[in-house]
């Protein structure tokens, strides 16, 4: 349920366009809807301004679709993350207007009008093409929540001139999400050339001593750039969620 939904329902009752019983029926799913396998939090967008997001990993295709349908019926923009190919096919067969991004492993359904520039600007940066699956998860998440997203990919420190070539685009962002594996050096470099928050995302990309992203995680946690904060390994979604909130505040 969108933040304006309750006011719209009450206004419709006041105008005589909606009966009290019909209004009560629409509101009965607040604060959550019981689906048997899940309790869908329709109240979340009223509390936080952002709707619940479906984490599809570990769920069956049928479970994911039923949650997707429940959220879609309330009129919010819907996002499912960590969606495998079989689940994507099943959800899309029921929701053909949704968009599947196989690189990001997301399915997104936009039902609101495109947001204005007031929602803020986010730059999503990744060190190499191997980090794209995390960067795209971040970019899709930020877009579905209304931010203006600039993608700046394959600009890792092994070729620092590539990063410096996009410095002007970095300077236009309200917040920067930086995804990197290996030694995880990129966020520190970005943090040193921008005057906005940088959210670092360690990726599970690298050879044996990268320990599945732990090396990048520790490197980012020890960044000497004081504007760098760090999320969990491969957590593009979490980085983008926080970035959206920061960007919205900056745009006010």
Radius of gyration: 20 Å
Q: Which structural class fits the helix and strand makeup?
A: alpha/beta
**Gap between N and C termini:** 23 Å
Strands of the widest sheet, in order across it, are 8-7-9-10-11
Domain count, please report it. 2
Q: Which second-level CATH architecture of the largest domain applies?
A: 3-Layer(aba) Sandwich
Q: Give the oligomer, counting copies of the same chain as homo and different chains as hetero.
A: single chain
What's the shape? globular
| Major sheet summary line | 5 strands, parallel
* Total beta strand runs: 11
What's a quick, concise take on this entry?
The chain has 252 residues and is α/β, with parallel strands linked by helices.
Throw out a few tags for this protein:
five-stranded parallel sheet, 11 helices, four-stranded mixed sheet, Rossmann fold, 252 residues, 11 strands, alpha/beta
Describe this structure in words.
39% of the residues lie in helices and 17% in strands. It has a 5-stranded parallel beta sheet. The mean pLDDT is 88. The protein folds into 2 domains: 5-109, no CATH class; 117-251, 3-Layer(aba) Sandwich (Rossmann fold). It is of the alpha/beta class. β1 and β2 (39-41) form a beta hairpin. The longest helix has 16 residues, at 236-251. It contains 11 helices and 11 strands.
């Amino acid at each position: 349920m969108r933040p304006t939904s309750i006011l719209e329902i009450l206004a419709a009752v006041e105008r005589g366009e909606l009966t009290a019983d019909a209004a009560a029926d629409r509101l009965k799913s607040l604060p959550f809807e019981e689906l048997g396998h899940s309790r869908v939090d329709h109240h979340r967008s009223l509390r936080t301004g952002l709707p619940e997001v479906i984490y599809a990993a570990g769920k069956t295709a049928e479970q994911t679709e039923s949650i997707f349908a429940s959220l879609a019926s309330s009129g919010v923009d819907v996002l499912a993350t960590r969606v495998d190919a079989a689940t994507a096919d099943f959800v899309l067969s029921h929701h053909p207007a949704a968009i599947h991004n196989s690189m990001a492993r997301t399915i997104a359904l936009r039902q609101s009008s495109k947001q204005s520039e007031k929602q803020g600007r986010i730059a999503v940066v990744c060190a190499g093409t191997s980090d794209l699956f995390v960067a795209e998860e971040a970019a899709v998440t930020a877009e579905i929540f209304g931010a203006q997203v600039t993608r700046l990919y394959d600009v890792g420190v092994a070729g620092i001139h590539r990063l410096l070539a996009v410095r002007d685009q970095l300077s236009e962002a309200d917040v920067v999400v930086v995804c990197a594996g290996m030694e995880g050096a990129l966020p520190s470099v970005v943090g040193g050339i921008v005057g906005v928050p940088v959210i670092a995302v360690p990726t599970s990309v690298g050879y044996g001593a990268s320990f599945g992203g732990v090396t990048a995680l520790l490197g980012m946690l020890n960044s000497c750039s004081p504007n760098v904060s760090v999320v969990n390994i491969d957590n593009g979604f979490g980085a983008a969620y926080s970035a959206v909130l920061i960007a919205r505040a900056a745009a006010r």
